[in-house]
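quick one: adenosine-5'-diphosphate bound model?
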Amino acid sequence: MIEGRDEPQDFEALRKQLEETKRQLEEERQKRKDLEGQSTPQPASEADSRGAARSGVDSSMEVAPINEADVTLRRLVQRIAMILQAEKIAIMFYDREKGELIGIPPAYGIDNEHLGIFRIRATHGISGQVFREGEPAIFHDTSADSRTKEDPFGLLHVQNGITVPLVIEKRDEENRVIDRTTIGVLHAFNKRHGEDFNEEDVRLLERMARNVGSIIANLQMYREVLEEREELAQTFESLTAGLILVSPDGRLSQMNASARAIFDAPADSIGKNYRDVLKNEEVEKIFLANQRGEETPKTEIHVSVHSYDRIYEVQSAQVKNEEGRGLGIVAIFNDVTDMKNIDKMKSSFVAMASHELRTPLTAIKGFSSTLLEGLDEDMYGKEDQREFLGIVVQECDRLRRLIDDLLNTSRIEAGESLKPNYSRFDLLPLLEKSVMVQQQASNRHKVSLDVQGPLPATIVGDQDKLDQILTNLLNNAIKYSPNGGDVIVHAKVEGDYLLVGVEDQGLGIPKDHLSRVFEKFHRVNNEDNRKIYGTGLGLFLVKHLVEKVHMGEIWAESEVGKGSTFLFRIPLELDIEKAKASND
Ligand code: ADP
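yep, here:
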């Protein structure tokens, strides 16, 4: 009892204070119960929709919203200050990584700025001692108390106070404590009216600390659940497959980034009716069947966004709870457009290849049997014979080229190189020869060479393969300019590289095919192109010869109806050792 006090009055005040404390404790206990009891289902709360807007993911998770618990904690801290008649209350949390006790909100009578620098190593001061030993401490005069010398109490003008450990307890179903962890300390500073704290206050604060601990434990649990939920949402978000969840009343409750891209859906689609967002009748049909509880097989659907048609394989099912009640629909969308295209291309390749094989064979057989029939009667003169045999040889070459293309493609596919044969050779004669040969092949086209600036006399590379590259590009330029026109080979030096462009005034290539024409079997399949035969292998091989054999780059520029330019860049002085290594 403190000196000079009127005892009966003091006693009455204390009794009142105790009663008030009891009442508040009961209130807190009830609050805690409520908090814990919130794991029963409740209507989608504000927190849910907030979460949904943030991550594009809805969840029916039922946990106390974090603000609610924060408010409870803040109120509790205020109440502690009131009950203990303390000017300031501070919670210090142990930061394992830093090894420090750090002031965290909510506090009472301390502004955030001061709270932010209120910290101490867990090995120091009275804070550290209480934290380590788990026993409360009371101090009556910080200026004279050696235990509080290291605490940053000067910062908060602390004269006296109580420090108790902050413990969280994990309990099992029967409410037995199965784990206790000291997570920090709770301080009450400066008893009001110039008075001092006593042992009764210590016990009070200890009891209150238990409540603080349990609220923090709840908060932590909530944060962990939130983090888990966030992780799950991130996983969904980053799936390459499109994922959609639809609630029983037909609203989108989840739609990941891929799904949003597939259906070109705005980011705020969650909560809207799926019909309005997906705008796809095929999907609607599947979902309606699912809603009726029917099982739907894997189905292919077509989605057209920004005039691009893509094909998706849909797998969907109704999600049911244990009692068999429908909770909604889950659907996964996989892009199978490329797979489908390859299938289509492969079959058209077989058709093309057979045609390409049959055409020269027909010619060879035709001309050789004509010669054979005429042999006895000397029906054909030397000129005719030369012409016929010339055609036979030409067609044989064509056959061989096709077979080489097929063989080379399968070699590349098997990861084998095309056996480069590097040397130093004359550049200009090679360019001139390719242009001349192609000019002879067509009289409807004007094939020419345009050299800009000086070219080096020689370069290092594989001469035959460079010839093959040029021949192929020139061949295409002529083939895909059915109405004739200019075909120009541009050549110039660009730094350490030779830049070559083969320009035509032909059909051109649609934008979305520009990079894909280099893929195996890829052909532009429109009215004009369909009549022109080919296998779709030429550019695939050319790309390999430029990139792998010559360590260069190749690309195409084009405008439909105006013409195309195929450009490639190869080093003037190829590093043969490096090139060989990259070919292995
Ligand atoms: P192929 O000519 O045997 O079909 P390529 O691999 O050489 O195979 O060419 C692939 C596709 O690229 C062609 O089918 C054609 O659609 C397109 N293409 C290639 N070169 C040109 C060009 N110069 N002009 C227009 N289209 C071209």
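The mean pLDDT is 86.
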